[in-house]
Amino acid sequence: MKKTKAFYLPILLVAVGLIYFSISAFNNSETNQIKKAEKSIESYNFAIGTQTVGAKYKFTEKTMLVETANEIKNMGSNLLKFSMHPRYCSENYGLPKNDNINSLTKLATLEPSMKEVLDMDFKYYHIWVYGFSQYTPEPVGKKDDTAQIKFINGYPEKYKEALYKEVYDFTSHLLKTYSGSGKVFYLGNWEGDWHLRSDYDRTKPVNLKTLEGMTQWAITRQKAIDDAKRDVKHSKVEVYHYIEVNLVRKALMEPEAKVVANSIVNVVNPDYVSYSSYDATNPYKKETALNENLKKSLDYLESQLSPKEGLPSGKRVWIGEYGNPSIHHNDEMQNLRSIWTIKTALEWGTPFILYWEMYNNEIKKETGEQVGYWLIDDKGTKQPIWHTHNNFYKESRTFVKDYLDKNNLLPSFDLFRKHALKFKSLNP
Questions:
Q1: Which of 70, 81, 116, 136 is the most buried (most CB within 10 A)?
Q2: Which of 125, 131, 163, 320 is nearest to 239 (CA)?
Q3: Of 112, 116, 78, 73, nearest to 95 (Cα)?
Q4: Which of 188, 160, 176 is nearest to 83 (CA)?
């Protein structure tokens, strides 16, 4: 029997269809692999970053928080550090006051700018968190840093219980809301030694009742985060606790003196320690002196920590703040001194090195002059240190991509940081 064209046509159509779907599947697989590789590069920890709190100027109709977060993203960073605090509507960001916001969770859900930046495409979030349950409203136009804490002269049980619940609820919210996102949240405090010594007098002996109260405050925050992580089902999202310190040089020079590093960190054993590092960076005029003293401080902080399970491998101490204000340094020296700090921290192995900050937050009272802690100045000019960050991110992405293409895996952080020391951006 002679087979007609009509007989072969369905067979031909099936064959063409199979070929088409095979090609499509191959292309889709290849596309998915490319997207996965791109995402892994964009999620890599490039170590350096910056922050936004209390800026004194802005250039767009967006809120201060959103504008500066966008600038941080546009610079090339995948890390955002900012503050979640009852002062969201005053000096920190000047956002509209909402009387329905009475907790960190409500701040995250009801304040549009807070929600927007939490939803942005950042991988790493460093957040100063201060509970609404601990806050005493300050008179309009006045600032009292003791208003945000309740452990001076001891920590009353009612405040301890309220803090636990608020931090537990907020951590639970982050775990539920961002499960599957790959985001990593580090929840901590601003310079802790100025909570321990709320009169800002580093020469006085510490108040022992305040020391015990602050210790309980830090223990409560760590426990609330740990318990929420234990209780809330989540995946591909992490929340960690850190304590920030700032008087490390005092501990090194006066071993008997009590500071947060040697009296609270070593008791609480937090997940991480952030170092606001001005006392190890700003006094020194030469790179060798800065390098030696900053490493000495980092070594000291590391010695106050005990081994801890459930954390990623690597160092647990980072640079939470460093900066060189333009009121004391020209643009080139501001950049060069910042590079000294970055290279020293990379040599030591800190997981993060965070510059203070995107827009300046300090104005000299006597003259109205911008102090100049900035990456972008009050005229909108990107400073040399901005370009150092931007170029560093470009070189970082190129290195990570090339390594991934060649080895089919991402470089370890140790390998990355050692290679980064050779980047042109750090060797002008």
A1: 81
A2: 125
A3: 112
A4: 188
